Amino acid sequence: MLPGAPDPPGWRRRWGRQPGPGLWCPSLLLLLAVLLGCIEAQTGPGSGGEPELNVYMSEEEVRRLIGLDAELYYIRNDIINHRALSFNLIIPTETSSLHFSWHSKSKVEYKLGFHVDNPLAMDMPQTNISLQGDVPRSLSVFRVDLFCSGKMETEIMLVMQLNITISSAKNITVLNFKRRKMCYRIDPVNVAPTTSTRVFYISVGVCCAVIFLVAIILAVLHLHSMKRVELDDSMSDSGSSQGLSQPSTQTTQYLRADTPNNATPVTNATGEQGTSGAGTARNLNGYPTLRIEKNDLKSVTLQEAKAKVKDIAISRERVTLKDVLQEGTFGRIFHGILVDEKDPSKEKPMFVKTVKDQASEAQITMMLTESCKLRGLHHRNLLPIGHVCIEDGEKPMVLLPFMNWGNLKLFLRQCKLVEANNPQAISQQDLVHMAIQIACGMSYLARREVIHKDLAARNCVIDESLQVKITDNALSRDLFPMDYHCLGDNENRPVRWMSLESLVNKEFSSAGDVWAFGVTLWELMTLGQTPYVDIDPFEMAAYLKDGYRIAQPINCPDELFAVMACCWALDPEERPKFQQLVQCLTEFHSALGAYV
Ligand SMILES: *[C@@H]1O[C@H](CO)[C@@H](O)[C@H](O)[C@H]1NC(C)=O
Ligand SMILES: *[C@@H]1O[C@H](CO)[C@@H](O)[C@H](O)[C@H]1NC(C)=O
Ligand SMILES: *[C@@H]1O[C@H](CO)[C@@H](O)[C@H](O)[C@H]1NC(C)=O
C-alpha cells in the first residue's frame, strides 16, 4: 500500500506494522513518473522493433533505493522512459552501490562513463563490467560502486552516462542517469577499516568499553591519590562520562574528539549535551545515528545557572521593555530594545524572556538553563540566546534577536483565522518553504550532535520575509501549557511531539527530533492545530505502539503526508535523516512551483 493514499478525513491509520517506511516522499513523484512513462511507452512512436533492449532497476533495487515494490524501466523494449531518466534520484546515506539490470535480444554496443560534480568529495565510481562492450544477451546485473572520499561534507551530483549504439543503425543514443548522494566528512579517529556496519558498531562498542575502563581506572587512581572516598552522586549513566573523565584531560579530549573545530560545543548548564561521548556512534558516512541519551535533568542551582551565562551578561540599563508579546503564569516575552554599548543612538529590537514576581527559583533556573540549548551555534535557521541580564535583585532576563512576526505557532493560528475570509493568505508552497528551513536548521543540529528534544512550531519564530528560525524551549511550558503533560512523574513533557522511545524509555536522539519534525510539519499543514487532540496523554504510548498516528490533514498533499508518516516509523533507524528531508521537501517545493 502506498503511504500517501488518502483516507477519508477523520480516519486514523495504522503505520507501525508495515514492513517499514524506509520509503518516503520521492516515491510518489517517481511512481507518477513511471506510470506516465508506461503510458508513453504504450502509445509512443513505433519502435525499431529489432534489438529489444531493456535497461531497468529490479524490484529489489527499487525497494532498497526508494522503498517501492516495483521495477523501474529506463528502456523497455527499445522505448526510452524519459521521465524516469529525468528523475534525479537521491541515494540513501547508507547505500553505496547501485545495481542495473539489462539485456538485449540482438547486438547493441554500449559505452559507459561517469561524471561527478565534486571529485574532491567523491572518487570516480567503479563498475564490475567493462566501460565498453556489448549489452549482454541474457538478463544480467551490473553494479556501480560509489566512494565518498570522506574529505568533505556535501551533496554530490552524479551522472552515469550510457551511450547505446545499435550496430545496424550506427546511431548513438545518449542516456544520462542522474543521482544525488550526500557525502559526509569522516573524522580520522572514527574511520573503520571495514565496510561492514556491524563490525564497525562492534568495534565502536569495544572502544567505548575500553575508554570507559581506562576512565574508571584513572578515576580510581585519582581518587586514591586524593584520598577522597566519596564519589559524586551523579556518577551513573550519562553523568558518568562527565564525572569520570575529569581526572584525565586526555580522556575528555578523546571523548570529544568528534566535535568539529568550527563549532563551539554547546555549553548546556544541565550538562545534557556534549558529554555522553560513550553513547556516540557514527555510521560509515560519519552521520551520527546512534547517539542516544537519557534525559538527565540534573538539578542545577540558580547560582550555577547564572555562572554559566556570566560571559554573555550585559547591564540591565541597556534594555528597554516595550509591549508584552506573550504571557504565561510566571513567564513573559517582551518586545525589547537593546542599546548599543558604544553608540547609544543605535538600537536593536530583541525578544526578552523574563519572569514575574511569583516565579520560583526553580522556574528561573529552568529558564536560564533551557535558554542555553542552542548557545554558540550559528546557522541561519537557528535563533540562539544573545545576552542575559542577571544582576542581583533584578528578575533575570534572556535576550534573543527579534523576529518581527514572532512565534510560529501563534502566527499559524493567526493565518487560520485570516484564512476563513481570505483563502490565499498563505500558500502551501510558503508552508513547505518553512518546513525546509526548519529541516535545514535541524540538519545542522544533528551534524553537530545536538539533540533539541522539543522541536515544535511553538519553539520556532518567523519574520516578515517568512524566514523561520528554531529556538530553545525556555518558558514554552508556561506559555503553551496545553502542549506539555506530566505523566505521573514531576516532569512536564511535550508528549504529543515525542517518539515512542523517548516517551517510554526516555531515549533521545536525532531520530527522535525527526519524529518531532514530522509533527511540526503536521502543525504547519494544519495551521497550528494540536496533534492527537482527542487522545489522552496517558494513552499516547499505547496508541503509538499499536501503530496509530495522526490523520492526514484535509488539503495536505499525499506526498507531504508520506513525509510525515516516514518520520513516525517506530524503528528510529528507519526514519529519514534531516538531510534527506531537506532534499525531499525541496524537490516537492519546486514541483509545487512548477505545477501550481
Ligand atoms: C556519449 O556520446 C556523447 C556524444 O557523442 C559523447 O560526448 C560522450 O563522451 C559519450 N560518452 C561516453 C561515456 O562514451
Ligand atoms: C556485478 O555485480 C553484481 C552484484 O554484485 C552481480 O550480480 C553481477 O553478476 C556482477 N557482474 C559481473 C559481470 O561480474
Ligand atoms: C537515429 O535513429 C532514429 C530511428 O531509429 C532516427 O529517427 C534518427 O534520426 C537517427 N539519428 C541520427 C543522428 O542518425
From TrEMBL:
- CDD domains hit by this protein: PTK_Ryk
What are its E.C. numbers? Answer: 2.7.10.1
A GO cellular component term found in this entry reads: cytoplasm
Q: Where in the cell is it found?
A: Cytoplasm; Membrane; Nucleus
- Entries under PROSITE patterns matching the protein: PROTEIN_KINASE_DOM, PROTEIN_KINASE_TYR, WIF
Q: Where are the transmembrane segments?
A: 199-221
Keyword Lipid biosynthesis recorded: no
One Pfam family this sequence matches: WIF
Identify the residues that the record assigns to the WIF domain, covering every copy.
55-183
Kindly list the GO molecular function terms attached to this UniProt entry.
ATP binding; transmembrane receptor protein tyrosine kinase activity
Predominant localisation class: cytoplasm
Q: Where is the composition biased (Low complexity)?
A: 258-270
Q: Which SUPFAM superfamilies match?
A: Protein kinase-like (PK-like)
Keyword field:
ATP-binding, Cytoplasm, Glycoprotein, Kinase, Membrane, Nucleotide-binding, Nucleus, Phosphoprotein, Receptor, Signal, Transferase, Transmembrane, Transmembrane helix, Tyrosine-protein kinase, Wnt signaling pathway
- Spell out the InterPro entries in the cross-references: Kinase-like_dom_sf, Prot_kinase_dom, RTK, Ser-Thr/Tyr_kinase_cat_dom, Tyr_kinase_AS, WIF, WIF_sf
What PANTHER family is this protein classified in? Answer: TYROSINE-PROTEIN KINASE RECEPTOR, TYROSINE-PROTEIN KINASE RYK
Subunit: Interacts with DVL1 (via PDZ domain).
Kindly provide the name given to this protein in its UniProt entry.
Answer: Tyrosine-protein kinase RYK
The source organism is Eleutherodactylus coqui
Species lineage: Eukaryota, Metazoa, Chordata, Craniata, Vertebrata
